[in-house]
Fold this sequence. Notes:
Layout: H1 7-31, H2 37-54, H3 64-81, H4 85-100, H5 109-135, H6 137-148, H7 152-169
Helix pairs in contact: 1-2, 1-7, 2-3, 3-4, 6-7
Amino acid sequence: xxxxxxxxxxxxxxxxxxxxxxxxxxxxxxxxxxxxxxxxxxxxxxxxxxxxxxxxxxxxxxxxxxxxxxxxxxxxxxxxxxxxxxxxxxxxxxxxxxxxxxxxxxxxxxxxxxxxxxxxxxxxxxxxxxxxxxxxxxxxxxxxxxxxxxxxxxxxxxxxxxxxxxxxxxxxx
Length: 173
């Protein structure tokens, strides 16, 4: 049986996401003239990343998509605090090492069957989710507007939050 997303959950996710973005922007602006710029940026980015991770259900954190997101979040944190070319190169090397350790699932007959079943279920759930999606369209529009003028990391985070909102609304129990 498909469950619908609770409006208060959507409001909480939107609030937490927007608050985290505002705190990150404020900290980055403040850090631009700070004597401890690198440390301030690292702290702000780590706090933002922790908030984003807290919005992801634990069972989804082992997915390839989440591992990729997490690797880039760590990279952005390291890059933001880098003050030398050597530190920037170390951040890039670490990212590439982490991405190299992500295991992409191989397709098997069972996987393909499961994917086909999941696609059918998603189609059915999408139809059921449409009324809920309409209720969250204002949030989606605001996120899209913010993402359009944002950094690649902010756009990725907006996409992840949108994915989470949609997938939480289509979970089966």
